[in-house]
User: Fold this.
Amino acid sequence: MKAESLHSFELFPLHLIEHFQHLFPSAGDSRLLFAETMAFLQKRAWTKGGILLSLDSQGKLSVREVYGLPLEGLRGSCCEPTEEIRRCLCQARPLVLEDVEEDPLLQPLLPLFGGHALFLWTPLRAAGRSTGLLGTLHLDPPWGQDQLSTAMGWVASLLSPALFLCSFWQELGLDELLERKLDHAMQQLASLQEEGAELFSEVLALVEKRLILAALRKTKNVQTAAARLLGINRNTLRKKIREHGIEV
Assistant:
């Protein structure tokens, strides 16, 4: 692909949608989702690094993820939003910084700000409320500020709900998660059951098969390790693999 096509502003929305269609099936991991998004921006918009900030109920920001920046030590730290960032969140519009000297969080980036460089804070919104900010560093960006702000707004519109869903599932306890999934599974199975069928056995088999598959994926199909992880012996695991028709 030619360079002008790779960085074309007109083609950017199509590339973005295509990229997120690929990401959504595995969007249960917020760290992976952020890293893949930043890798896409690095290729398409010459983005050199990024920061993901989450906004809590008290209005404080915390560094959730970093990518390609000398800020790894800040992961998990909290900060009060500056007045500029407050306006950015309230107005739901990207904030362009050509000088990061007055932003204490971005002090480590000062050595990078020579020549044509700018930093964008793009608000993230989901379920009708502000959820955080996506910060991106651009060195010699291929587009002007207006186009770059528009492009990052498109990114935020897709990234925000995906991150919100990640957080929702990650914050649920294992008991609650299993309860919700089993309730849904039982409703589906019950609607298909004939009178006198063993619903308990059907649900138990479903959960057991998925648990074994998860253990095999975790251990890269090493059955001895999977059995150890599940707390059963290898012969029992082999028997259940055959019973459930699992291919290994």
In short: The longest helix spans residues 145-171. The longest strand covers residues 129-139. The mean pLDDT is 83. The CA atoms of residues 171 and 224 lie 31 Å apart.
